[in-house]
Amino acid sequence: MSEVTPRIPQATSKRLPLYYRFLKGFSNAGKKRVSSSELSEVMKIDAATIRRDFSHFGALGRKGYGYDVDDLLHFFRQTLDQDEETDVALIGVGGLGSAFLKYNFQKTHNTRIVIAFDPKASKEGRIVSNIPVYHPDMMEEKLQEMGINIVILTVPANVAQDTADRLAEIEVKGILNFTPARLTVPDWMRVHTIDLSAELQTLIYFIKNDVKDSQL
């Protein structure tokens, strides 16, 4: 994703890929214009939140008309750099990592896993779901060779920080962290952590307490 200006709230930034995905659906269905209410209905996000998100980027729509679907799609495609493919690496080919390799992200957008690392693989590598998988001893060499700056981390929690330290040494810019470990990284490196167990516990809490999840 291209760098979002500091004025854009983080919550808004996180919703941008969702807007792009749903707008693609409207465009594929031949819809020419859409209102915030229609987006709200399909996305389950409050219409006022959508209007507020869009307002950060200027006049994207017209009062009484709504939003031009193709214009919005073009805007978010440029904002998210959807015309430029991004190669990423996967570190850890266990249950979750194997699922990522089978799915891969190119099916839905312009991001694709092109290489992976796992202790069970040899230095010579092996092929899993058409992706080469190498031993972690080869990580620095291969990532630098391929110019990869974004990594998906699905390793055991006890080796997550050490792996992050190694990635920082070769100046990898971003980690999508699926481990429960809270990583310490340099200020210039960005880490997005998705703790599946914590998210599940939060869902259970809301269900048991009948608390409606707020739209974030």
UniProtKB/TrEMBL annotation:
GO terms for molecular function: DNA binding; DNA-binding transcription factor activity. It comes from the Bacteria. The keyword Zinc does not apply. Residues 81-182 form the CoA-binding domain. Keywords: Cytoplasm, DNA-binding, NAD, Repressor, Transcription, Transcription regulation. The keyword Repressor applies. Homodimer. This is Redox-sensing transcriptional repressor Rex. The gene is rex.
